[in-house]
Amino acid sequence: MNREFQERRRSSRITSNGGVEFRVGRRVRVRLLEISANGALLATDETVPTGSIGRMHLPLNARAFEAAVEVKREEPTTNGRGRVLGVAMRTPHAEQRRLLEDFLGRAGA
Fold first, then answer.
1. Domain-embedded: residue 79
2. Which of 33, 35, 42, 100 is most solvent-facing, going by the fewest CB within 10 Å?
3. Considering only CA atoms, which of 63, 73, 72, 58 is closest in space to residue 23?
4. What is the C-alpha to C-alpha distance for residues 100 and 4, in angstroms, rounded to an integer?
5. pTM of the full structure
6. Does residue 101 form part of some domain?
């Protein structure tokens, strides 16, 4: 990954192995690497331009979490065989924010 990237994360992230759906005008196959109260790190084989706005859906504690997200960074993986997307949540609804915060609290983040 790009060594010049400056981390601006405001909360800790936890790893997850749950399924995630990501749409940015089209469905993009992604794998959730980490999630925090403010964003997530996704792995993909596709290029998604920085600044793209999309929707992310994932199961949290047997409930569906959904939020609008913006791609803040997009770069190759360290092995060069895929891409890493850093996405920021764009003000999820209060109920969705509580669901995410409850999930993160139970996970110890």
1. yes
2. 33
3. 58
4. 30
5. 0.79
6. no
Residues 12 and 36: their CA atoms lie apart, in Å, by: 6
Residue 90 lies in a domain: yes
Contact 77, 83 (CB under 8 A): yes
Q: What is the pLDDT along the chain (109 residues), one digit of tens a residue?
A: 454 545 454 444 444 455 789 999 999 999 999 999 999 999 999 999 999 999 999 988 788 899 999 999 999 988 888 999 999 999 888 999 999 999 898 877 5
Which structural domain range is residue 72 located in? 14-96
Number of structural domains in the chain: 1
Supply 39's token pair.
């964003």
Task: Evaluate whether 21 touches 71 at the Cβ level (below 8 Å).
Answer: no
Beta-carbon count within 10 A of 68 CB: 15
Of 40, 96, 104, the residue nearest 72 (C-alpha):
40
